[in-house]
Amino acid sequence: MAPPGPAGAHPNSAEPLSRRIFRKFLLMLCSLLTSLYVFYCLVERGQTLSGPIVGLSGGGEEAGDPDRGVLAGGPRELAVWPAATHRKRLLQLQQRRRRRQQQQRRPAAPRDDSDQTVWEEETPGLVVGPGGSGAGSSVAEAPPGTLALLLDEGSKQLPQAIIIGVKKGGTRALLEFLRVHPDVRAVGAEPHFFDRSYDKGLAWYRELMPRTLDGQITMEKTPSYFVTREAPARISAMSKDTKLIVVVRDPVTRAISDYTQTLSKRPDIPSFESLTFRNRSAGLIDTSWSAIQIGIYAKHLEHWLRHFPLGQMLFVSGERLIRDPAGELGRVQDFLGLKRIITDKHFYFNKTKGFPCLKKAEGSSKPHCLGKTKGRTHPDIDPGVVQRLRDFYRPFNLKFYQMTGQDFGWDG
Ligand SMILES: *[C@@H]1O[C@H](CO)[C@@H](O)[C@H](O)[C@H]1NC(C)=O
Ligand SMILES: *[C@@H]1O[C@H](CO)[C@@H](O)[C@H](O)[C@H]1NC(C)=O
Hints:
Blueprint: H1 11-14, H2 17-48, H3 82-105, H4 116-120, H5 132-140, H6 144-151, E1 155-156, E2 161-165, H7 171-178, E3 184-186, H8 202-207, E4 211-212, E5 217-221, H9 231-238, E6 243-248, H10 251-265, H11 272-276, E7 277-279, E8 284-285, H12 290-293, H13 297-305, E9 313-317, H14 318-323, H15 325-335, E10 347-350, E11 355-358, H16 383-404
Parallel strand pairs: 2-5, 2-6, 3-5, 6-9
Antiparallel strand pairs: 1-4, 7-8, 10-11
The chain binds 2-acetamido-2-deoxy-beta-D-glucopyranose (2 copies).
Pfam family, one: Sulfotransfer_1
GO molecular function, one term: [heparan sulfate]-glucosamine 3-sulfotransferase activity
Keywords: Disulfide bond, Glycoprotein, Golgi apparatus, Membrane, Signal-anchor, Transferase, Transmembrane, Transmembrane helix
């Protein structure tokens, strides 16, 4: 006995024409919105997959984007449509603002380990398919928090490049200078994975790494790798393509610097002269003393060349790194396949310290010099002992110049 509802009524008799049209219109609007939503979800999905689903169709704007490094062009560097490019710029603006706020919050430590967060907010190569202007504009209008969740994740990668040595060669300086580059992400501390913690496994090692986005290089530095017998095979087992950087410095001044560092921690150790010799009157050098042993570069290099081709190693002069940091950084950026972004504009020389410092980085408030421990003054060493050491190292140095095809100028 229920009254006949509108659904049960005959359309022709019960409903006026305008109402029918309105219903159809509502129905169409609903399905349009639904399909837009489905499309939006599909695009999101396509972005998390690394396959070149959408990339085949686009003009590859990303590769020519001046903001990106040369490394752009990986499997996920796909086509970017104009709307997406615009959106990316908006995002980058937001990120810069956020970064600046973060830096203002931590003025004392502009580039410590916690600056990871700064780059975690960089956007990955954004992928939107054809018709992206419709679905895309709704993304652009979403609040920034949602965007961060959807787009700004990044992931931890095993390092593609490692500074493997040498101790007291200038590895810290090189890493700090390199970190100025937006496409370089590096661990602040020395992981010592391939010498001390190898049994913890690669997953543990990867967990130490900062998050990176496509086109960014993950790096670490542990100077003791260069003199660790097992390190070449272990790094090669991780990836045969790992790029290796060695900062080398005159082995005699390196040894003295090494000793000076130890002395500052343990003032009671014997003199440099007495540690240098096994038998001083016979002039017999104690090559088992690590301060001496590390400087026999040619011997260590032999082990590396059994696992890596020479072209995969870059030898940075520790002396030139101080005299002409921009010049050496140019070589390093080329070697890593990075755009030359770090130039002499980034440095100034502190005459008191005798050391180059970084000018304030973009958005940062303060200039950045290395800590107090860098550039210590060395104790006076008996000139006769220094000469004996020069004679000792000369043949090894010449061999090293030969092997690397580079004259580092330590022997006149
Ligand atoms: C040191 O060398 C000298 C000269 O060669 C030798 O007479 C002396 O026995 C050596 N001393 C030690 C402790 O080996
Ligand atoms: C240069 O280094 C000295 C000694 O470390 C430091 O006191 C000074 O502030 C530095 N000057 C500049 C301009 O960085």
